[in-house]
Amino acid sequence: MAQDPTPIREHVGIAIDGGGIKGVIVARALIALEEMLGVERLIDSPKVKVIAGTSTGSLLAFGIAAGMSARELVALYEGLGERVFSKGGPIRPFGKSIPLLSRLHFPASAIRFMRRLPFSGGDFVLYPLLPARYSFDPLREILCELIAARVPDDLPNNNPTLRQLGDHLREKAGSPTVIITAVDTASRETHFLKTNESERYYYMPVVDAVLASSSIPTYWEPIPLKDQNGKTIGQLVDGGVGNFGNPAFVVAWEMCSAANDDPRRHYDPQDVTLFSFGTGTLSAQTFRKVHGNARNWWALQWASRALDLFMGSALREQSRSVVQTFAGIDLRRFQVEFDQAIGADRFDLVDTVLKQKGEEMQARVRQNVHALQSDPAKRYDPEGIWLNFLKEFQK
Predict the structure, then answer these.
(1) How far is CA 26 from CA 47, 93, 226, in A?
(2) Which of 65, 89, 86, 84 is nearest to 21 (CA)?
(3) Tally of CB atoms within 10 A around 192
(4) pLDDT for position 199
(5) How many angstroms separate the CA atoms of 30 and 35, rounded?
(6) I need a surface site. Which of 219, 249, 296, 340 has the fewest CB within 10 A?
(7) How many H-runs (helices) and E-runs (strands) does the chain carry?
């Protein structure tokens, strides 16, 4: 397939949205980016300066930092889902721990079955019984195994902290920074967990940072935020709960803002290409078809869909904010559109729908077909980023 001749600028940022198992779509798209940069692994490119991820994007960002190729990331996701979603959440009726009962875990297969019942019937049963649908134990094991297999010799242990990973990355060609987003539930504030030297939570193990960013409400329980002495000072959940389900603005700020805390950056936006990857969206028509008229939703249905309603707007606004704040930046926002709602745990679709959508995004990366193309013939904008705001802004 022909590759678009538009050059990639001197400094490259990568931003990856959340989406659970749908992260495999982006993993396939990254194959094209490796080819365009002329490297076997993105971490080896001297152009790559910042990699940010939210939720499943944090797992991909960590995989890149650990030296995995895009094809290895695809293979990881192909075998990830069945294991990650293999252990149901602890049974805790109405949030109360009951001796013996709280040690039991709801069968994961039953959870997935009930989630697909019509009229959100499964939610009515699950929500009063479980604090979260799944246990984090399998994903923690996978991350620890990944580190054990990939940990470089210069890292002192098999569970490095953010600072230790940062020290290792500063020896790489582009001296890249990795940023992981997570939200503190009490302060309602997004934490940007970075591998640079000034990171506030430099002592946090990388595994905990990835788990915190991946803690989708109702899917997994929050991850404790601890101080240097191990005292719990907060609870962290998925970074997408805040404004940064799409962390493109985080990357742009880290690379181009004179106010960021990394003196190595402060690049001219004219010298920056920012690759922003979504994990799938629904058109308004499809959303109505799937979920029905909002006037007919029950209270629990509103509760289960509130995050989707909020995140759709937040994803668009992050892209718009990048273009408005950093004039001249080459922002390439790649997204795919689904004709059905696909949950974060639909690993049964990895070899069918998600593979197809990954190949679709991969082709668009090669051809430079994205939401912010000035050429309408090469613009693909299922999120509606261009509409109204950018159409006026870029006249």
Answers:
(1) 19, 37, 31
(2) 84
(3) 19
(4) 81
(5) 9
(6) 296
(7) 13, 10
Residue 318 lies in a domain: yes
Between CA 358 and CA 160 the distance in angstroms is: 31
Number of domain units in the chain: 2
Question: Is the torsion defined by CA of 86, 308, 210, 62 positive or negative?
Answer: positive
Residue 231: left (phi > 0), alpha (psi -120 to 50), or beta? Answer: beta
Task: Give the integer Cα–Cα distance in Å for 64 and 34.
Answer: 11
Q: If you search the block for the tokens 């479980």, which residue do you land on?
A: 130
Are 17 and 76 members of one domain? yes
Instruction: Please give the residue range of the domain that contains residue 323.
Output: 11-82+136-393
Instruction: Assign 304 to helix, strand or coil.
Output: helix
Query: Which residue is listed with tokens 């940007």?
Result: 192
Residue type, 277: F
Q: Examine the domain organization and report whether 337 and 375 are in the same domain.
A: yes
- Residue 154 resides in a domain: yes
Nearest 5 degrees, angle CA 262-CA 268-CA 270?
145
Write down the pLDDT at residue 94.
Answer: 47
* pLDDT, averaged in runs of 10, over the chain (395 residues): 79 97 98 97 97 97 95 95 75 52 56 55 56 81 85 69 91 92 94 89 94 90 92 94 93 89 83 98 87 81 74 86 94 96 90 98 97 90 76 52
95 & 214 share domain: no
* Contact call for residues 17 and 279 (beta carbons, < 8 A): yes
In the chain, alpha helices (H): 23-37, 56-65, 70-84, 108-115, 121-129, 137-150, 162-169, 206-213, 248-256, 284-291, 299-325, 353-367, 391-393
Instruction: Supply the pLDDT for residue 133.
Output: 72
What pLDDT, on the 0 to 100 scale, is given for residue 335?
A: 97
* Token couple for 336: 């795919």
Two structure tokens written together for 338: 């689904």
